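B., you asked whether I could sanity-check this one before it goes into the benchmark set. Here's the sequence:
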Amino acid sequence: MNQPSDFVGAKQAAKLLGVRLPTLYAYASRGLVTSVPSGEGRARLYARADLMRLRARGDARSGHAAVAGGALRWGEPVLESSITEIGAGGPRYRGRLAVDLARQRVPFESVCALLWAGSLPAVSPQMHGKAGVRPRAGATSYVERLLCAAPTLAPGDPLSSPLQAAGGLVRALAAALAPDAREAAAAHRAPTVARAALASFGAEAGEERVAVVDQVLVLCADHELNVSAFAARVVSSAGATLPACVTAALAAFSGPAHGAASDRVEALLDEIGSPERARAVLSERVRRGEAIPGFGHPLYPAGDPRGAELFAVARASHSRASRMKVLEAVVRAMHAAEQPAPNLDAGLVAVRVALGLPRGAASALFALGRSAGWVAHALEQREQGFLLRPRARYVAR
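And here's what the prediction gave me:
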């Protein structure tokens, strides 16, 4: 559930927008504002985040300068893209709901083709990565291995298609997760990206486990103009190669506020230790004014559908791992306190624990899946053919 401050009553909502109640109701009926029952008769509550976006859109049309600055802070759209649209049901890849694609068990390779070429292929395409990506002995995490490997990847044969080069790049990243040469070789031999990832983790690759990893990769594949995708687009706009664009995206992804968020969820579970301590630890964190990692998302005031789907996948495995019990206790305590629902980062940890994958595999699968989106954004920006060079408004200090 959401915090009460995430939703407001009808009169306050109309006041925020500067409109009459009938106009507010019309916005809600058109899906522009999320509304939920208030629990008091027929009255409804309205999502503050949707209201603020609508108000910002109106301000933008009036030419307010402040909107330009706010656009880079979860504000109004700043670029046109045909890749992904974000709505209450989660991301839609070229019009296809990501959650539906995962439930239908569409292979990750097919989703890559959807993102890169615009349509789902009748047969899942083969991705062939070149052998030669060597394990990075000095890297202490999976994401660091990817960061070390990405700049060394060849941009591909100039005569090959961009989609072939992209497929080879993603396959090479899957093998780059491997800690040693034996697992890297097994990853290169694997027929799919999901199997290659499991080989890199040194994990069993049964059919059901492969299907779950595929679902994770699909749900992570893209999320519109997030910080790593924007980094990829900026670098692509300068004419850089695909490996350079992915390297820039990985650098952004490595930050604790983005791809490393699942590591903070793992640290929270370490701190809690046992299900019985969940409520006390969470209460103390809230008392100190600290955010709970893995819960809530600015774009999903009613809950992140990707997180909900990953938890459903994890629960279907009937894992008895003690860490899964701790995570479930956290979810129950958050729900009881009417705090936000689990997001993608918590869902990734749930699947990681349910499958018994090594620690750090949650962020690794996130990065591997998201590489599909980074490539899509880099290719789209290349097609659009303009340099991303925003202006700054100078402010004397």
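One thing to flag: The chain is about 55% helix and 5% strand. Otherwise nothing jumped out at me.
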